Every structure is written in C-alpha cells, then in structure tokens.
Amino acid sequence: PGTKRGITGDGDLAVIFSSGGVTPGDKYLFKLDESGKIRSMRMWVSIVPFKGLTASFTDYIKTESNLQVSTLHEMSFFDLKLANVASYTNYPADEDRFKPLLEKMAQAKS
Fold first, then answer.
1. Considering the entire predicted model, what is its pTM?
2. Which of 58, 54, 46 is nearest to 30 (CA)?
C-alpha cells in the first residue's frame, strides 16, 4: 500500500513510496538497458544526505537458478562488490537462510 510504480517516457522504471516502505517519501529511478536489465539506480532517500545519489549495476553474473545479479555497484563515495552470490530454485526449508551470513559476521568480529 502506498507504493507507486510506473514507466517513464524513456522506458525507465520509477518507484515511489508515498506511504509504504521503511521510509515513506523515498523515490527510485531505475535506468534499464535494451534487454531490461538495470544499468543504474538513482535514489532520493531520507536516510542518505545526498539528493539524487546514483549507483551503477554492473558485472552481472548468472546464478545456478538462472537469476542474473549485478555484483558491482559504484557510487560517488564508495563501491559495493558482492561476492559468494547464490540463489535457489527451492530453498531447503529446514535450514536457516541467514546462518551463513551470521557466521561470516561473527568471524569478521573476531
């Protein structure tokens, strides 16, 4: 509820959280390439002090379940590189999906 989505005249995707989401009022503009993959995302969000911050979406990989994921996001003040990306067609229901992440976080603290 409260989320508006639309395609711009340039064929890009706009998402506005007018009352929904974690921070109502946030706006996102996703620039798409000719195949529909995200090239970049421009965001106007209340938790970031920069207005209209842009993040690139590059270095796509294809996961085991055939999902394409961007593993590099470059922004004006830092880059975010994702590693060990995985996806599941059927996730093992008896496993805690966040266990590997929590283990890595615990290792990083020690």
1. 0.72
2. 54
